[in-house]
Amino acid sequence: MTTTTHRTVSEILDRALAGERLSPEDGYGLIHADATDLAAMMAAASELRDRGHGRVVTYSRKVFIPLTNLCRQKCGYCTFARGPRDPIAHTMSPDEVLAVARAGARQGCKEALFSLGERPEEIYENVRADLAGFGHTTTSSYLREMAELVLRETGLQPHINQGLMERGEIVSLREVSASMGMMLETVSLRLHEKGGAHWNCPGKIPEERLRTMRIAGEEKVAWTTGILIGIGETREERVDSLVAIRDLHDELHQIQEVIVQNFRVKEDIAMRHRDEPSVFEMLRTIATARLILGPQMNIQAPPNLTPDAHGMYLLAGINDWGGISPVTRDHINPERPWPNLTELKEMCADAGFELRERLGLYPEYIRADPGYEGFISEGIRPQIERLADSDGLVKREEERW
């Protein structure tokens, strides 16, 4: 008969700081910790972050390219996906894509974030017609052409957010992208039940998302993923999601970043009457993520989704702010403007951090640290070598000139 040891929060923190691998049960103890333990959790998470990343916090200067906002599924919290009769439903033309990318290049962007609905051609005739007009039968093949176009004409390095992918798609897109990504969001199957956030969303089945992420690792593609909190998952399910991500990364080293993202209410979503996670809930979840994932993982929380309190995230163990654009809005959360970079830099300095710009590919992959070799495609390598310094970050301005 197996027994489970229930440790105190203090004991769990001691284990994490000693470099021991936390169990799911340890994670449950942390995610349910009360306010009296939160300060100790955050201090331990910050110490781990400092061991892995020092006092440098990063961001990516990007341009957001929403290739198509039509999607085969409509999650209960999504305002990005549109149906074919919606007046703002749109698939971008090559000229539109290139215009946005060139605007980003003029403003010093390095990353082109391609975000799009998942396989809309499976259910929408008008999408199939648009694709045919561009000389394609699938969104994935059109995406590949547009990523190559942006890379060739502007030098911006594509980061691909397509959703579920098969091996052939990943291999093809790897040639013209620096990295790819897809949020795991949650491993909860309950949210696929009628009335749940993922009802009738085949692309959100956890097993399928993890399969795509595994293939990415096997094909040496650096991958961004994360959890979305406040969509109906339990705290235990958050821990289970983080552990699933950790287990994949331990095996294949492909997870370059884990995002802890908070659900925000919007007026045009099915979940508009749900409560949003509090700042306290975010801090507890971020600290738990750092303690489970360890000192080396890059952990991000979007600053524009908590504009009045995101500085506290530095105290909970993050080391990255994600992509920030001087050109395009956050098309996933259009009502939430990006922070001002000067103000963000000053806030980081006040907290004892240096804000540095990174590329769409994280430094450990650029430096080819042990376990992170072979993740740069030859199509991207010249741009990486032109822009990156010996630390794998974007060269400081004086170094570039």
Task: Report on this structure.
With 401 residues, this protein is an alpha/beta fold. The protein has one domain (47-400): Aldolase class I (TIM Barrel). The chain has 15 helices and nine strands. It has helices at residues 9-17, 24-31, 35-53, 94-106, 125-133, 139-154, 167-174, 206-218, 235-252, 279-293, 313-316, 341-350, 363-367, 381-387, 397-400, and strands at residues 56-68, 111-116, 157-161, 179-181, 223-229, 255-262, 299-300, 320-324, 354-358. Strands 1, 2, 3, 4, 5, 6, 7, 8 and 9 form a nine-stranded parallel sheet that branches.
Q: How many helical stretches?
A: 15
Please summarize the sheet with the most strands.
Answer: 9 strands, parallel
CATH topology: TIM Barrel
Instruction: Give the class-level CATH name.
Output: Alpha Beta
Order of helices and strands: HHHEHEHHEHEHEHEHEHEHEHHH
Strand content: 5-15%
Strand tally, please? 9
CATH superfamily caption: Aldolase class I
